[in-house]
Every structure is written in structure tokens, then in C-alpha cells.
Write a structure and sequence with these properties.
This is AB hydrolase-1 domain-containing protein. Belongs to the AB hydrolase superfamily. Lipase family. With 395 residues, the protein is of the alpha/beta class. The chain contains 17 helices and 14 strands. The strands form 3 sheets. The chain has an 8-stranded mixed β-sheet with strand order 11-10-6-5-2-3-1-12, with helices on both faces. Strands 4-14-13 form a 3-stranded antiparallel β-sheet, covered by helices on one side. Strands 7, 8 and 9 form a 3-stranded mixed β-sheet that branches. Helix 1 links the parallel strand 2 and strand 3. About 11% of the residues have low confidence.
Length: 395
């Protein structure tokens, strides 16, 4: 999605795990980062990761085929992000874009910019909100799920999509979460996976948030994340407990992804490494990587200037994991830690405009700011179907 007119500085917003581009515009206009940046004169583009509600097209495959869902955030970084950035640059005539990612959106950026130096040259600055790279100290129920054996996750969820959007969930969001009595229940369920900061959430918007969630991804994505940490085993839980978590939380948090995406997250948890997806055998890894084990991503190769924001009550991007990440970034130019914030405050927090968004809008953008452009006079255009080199239609 693009908000324009006019040749203006370009910012590309990338959502997190199980989310979609609506994250940036579902609050009221003066509380939504997408609108705030557009009002400040920027050409705002919002990406959608493959497998979510808005990114389910392929040149030769259909969503009913397992091959369609054989992706994780690896493919989002290797194919989707370069295709989107190149498309935006060609469309706008700009030489560089600002990249802003939240949660898995930061993971995609770290992979892409460490592996593709030519792509990194096209990024003026990387704004990392609640970055998720290491999961050694995270204690979200999602982390527990990712610690399960890959074969069990695949038995539970299959080999295709994970938590897709559905009409039933939309009905629950619009007919249950809109009532005063049940709104608090919906609000608390939103917090279950990311941390609690109820006072900073606009409860009147919960039905709006949940109407757009879930959007979908692959189970392989979660398995990939499970290769990072062992803390899930230390916390301990039962399969029945995990299934219960899924029953109470999925109507409000899922936007969908692939099972492979889920598996990839699980690999992050299990292996303690920021690495490519492990295909499960030496032969398969050799086929994909020309070596018998998945390559490790070296964060020291990320030369793009990085501004990073973290939260003290974030159950996914834990402070201890953030501290590990900070030591490995060679071009970190700014870091702000907000002790009260949890994972969703970065996109929906009531105080986000003056605690974070104003810094993004003014401090680093000041040299290229345009005159104020009112969104009331802006056009909104959906640019769907940007082809990637592996035949997906992204963005």
C-alpha cells in the first residue's frame, strides 16, 4: 500500500509475525505511524509478508499446494524485501528508502542487509522497533510453542498455513470485542503473547485491531524461530496447555503465516543461532545452501545505520536478548529503552506518538523533511502483485 502524491522521501514500513500492513493505520489518525509520517510529508509504503491475507499469489502455485507454503522469514528477507525496495525505488525515482520494521519486520531487515550489500546501499536508515533476533530469554507462549519438536508442530498444524484469517474470527472480533463487557477480555487476550500494558492500549479500538488479525504465515516460520533458544524447555508446558493457549488467543492475534515460518521461529529457539532455515537433513541443506548445515547470519555485516527502540515489559523482545543484540551491531547510531512498554506498544501504544514516533519523524528525517502534507488531500493506492525472483507476487 502506498500513500502519496509527489516525489517525497520514502519510508517503507514492515509489520511483524502474524500481522499485516494495517498495523500502521488502525489507530486514529494522530496515533497511527503511517498517517503521522504521511502528514509529515513522506511517501509511505507498507509491506505485507508472503502468506498473510494480502499476499497470497504466486505465478504457478496456489494456496492449496504445500509447495506454496514452503517459506519462512528467510524467503521474506531474500526475495520479498529486495523486490519491494527495488519496486519502490523504480516507482519513486528515489535512490534510497528508510526501512522501518517491527518484530519479525526487523528480523527480515537484519537478514537482508547482512546478506545483500547492494540492497543495503539502497537503505538510508534502518529503524528497528522491538527487534527479535535472539529468543534465549523470551517467555511468550509463542516461544513455548516453538520449542516443541518440529514433527509435533507439523502434526498439530500441518504443512501449509498457520493461523490464517477467517470469517468466523472476523465475526468474533466485530460482535464480541465491541461489547463493553467482553472488551476487557479481548484486550487481555491481545496481551497474552506480548506482555501487559493495558493502560497504554486504546480499548475502544480493540475490535478494529482484531478485525484485521489474523493474516497468516507458514508453520515453517515458527519452526525456524524455535531453533534459537532453549528457554522454552526450562519454562515447561504441556501440549494440552499450548493447545488451550491457541484456543483462547487465535481469534485476536493471528493474521496467518506458513507452517514453515512457524518452524523457522522454532529453530531459532532450539538452536540459539541467528541462522537460515534448517531443512532437517544434510542432503536437503546441501541442496538449498551448498553445505550440509544452514548458514549463520553475521550481524556485524549489517552496515546500514540503525536506530533501535526496545521495551522493558516485552515478552518477545526481552531486554536481555536486546542487550545481546546491541553488542553485535556495528553501526548502531541510536537506542532508546522504554521500561513500561510491551511488544504492541510500538504500533498501538497511546503514548507512542510523543515517546517514539516524534523521534522517527523529526530527528533523523529533519534534513529531508518536506512541507506538511495533509492526509485529507493525499491519495491512497494499493500496489499489489510485485513479482519476486522466486515467482511470488509480493507487497
Amino acid at each position: 500500500h502506498q500513500c502519496f502524491p509527489g516525489p517525497r522521501p520514502v519510508v517503507y514500513l514492515q509489520h511483524g509475525f502474524l500481522a499485516d500492513s494495517s498495523n500502521w493505520v488502525t489507530n486514529i489518525d494522530n496515533n497511527s505511524l503511517g498517517f503521522i509520517l504521511a502528514d509529515a510529508g513522506f511517501d509511505v509504503w507498507m509491506g505485507n509478508s508472503r502468506g498473510n491475507t494480502w499476499s497470497r499469489k504466486h505465478k504457478t502455485l496456489s494456496v492449496s499446494q504445500e509447495e506454496f507454503w514452503a517459506f519462512s522469514f528467510d524467503e521474506m528477507a531474500k526475495y520479498d524485501l529486495p523486490a519491494s525496495v527495488n519496486y519502490i525505488i523504480n516507482r519513486t525515482g528515489q535512490e534510497q528508502v528508510y526501512y522501518l520494521g517491527h518484530s519479525q519486520g526487523t528480523t527480515i531487515g537484519f537478514i537482508a542487509f547482512s546478506q545483500m550489500p547492494e540492497l543495503a546501499k539502497k537503505v538510508k536508515m534502518f529503524f528497528a522497533l522491538a527487534p527479535v533476533v535472539f529468543l534465549d530469554f523470551a517467555f511468550s507462549p509463542l516461544v513455548k510453542l516453538g520449542r516443541l519438536p518440529d514433527i509435533l508442530i507439523e502434526d498439530l498444524f500441518g504443512h501449509k498455513q498457520f493461523l490464517p484469517e477467517s470469517s468466523v474470527l472476523k465475526w468474533l472480533s466485530t460482535h464480541v470485542c465491541t461489547h463493553v463487557i467482553t472488551r476487557e477480555l479481548c484486550t487481555n487476550i491481545v496481551f497474552l503473547l506480548s506482555g501487559f500494558n493495558e493502560k497504554n492500549l486504546n480499548a475502544s479500538r480493540v475490535d478494529v485491531y482484531t478485525t484485521h488479525s489474523p493474516a497468516g504465515t507458514s508453520v515453517q516460520d515458527l519452526l525456524h524461530w524455535g531453533q534459537v533458544s532453549t528457554l522454552w524447555v526450562q519454562l515447561g508446558t504441556s501440549v494440552q496447555d499450548l493447545l488451550h493457549w491457541g484456543q483462547v488467543s487465535t481469534p485476536w492475534v493471528q493474521l496467518g503465516t506458513s507452517v514453515q515460518d512457524l518452524l523457522h521461529w522454532g529453530q531459532f529457539v532450539k538452536h540459539h543461532k541467528f541462522q537460515a532455515f534448517d531443512w532437517g537433513s544434510r542432503d536437503k541443506n546441501y541442496f538449498h545452501y551448498n553445505q550440509s548445515y544452514p548458514p549463520v547470519y553475521d550481524l556485524k555485516d549489517v552496515t546500514v545505520p540503525i536506530a533501535l527502540w526496545s521495551g522493558g515489559h516485552d515478552w518477545l523482545a526481552d531486554t536481555s536478548d536486546i542487550n545481546i543484540l546491541l553488542t553485535q551491531l556495528p553501526n548502531l547510531v541510536y537506542h532508546k529503552h522504554i521500561p513500561e512498554w510491551e511488544h504492541l506498544d510500538f504500533i498501538w501504544g497511546l503514548d507512542a506518538p510523543w515517546r517514539m514516533y516524534n523521534e522517527i519523524e523529526k530527528d533523523d528525517f529533519e534534513a529531508v523533511r518536506c512541507s506538511l502534507v495533509s492526509k485529507k488531500h493525499a491519495n491512497y493506492d494499493c500496489q499489489a502483485g510485485v513479482p519476486t525472483s522466486d515467482a511470488f507476487l509480493s507487497l
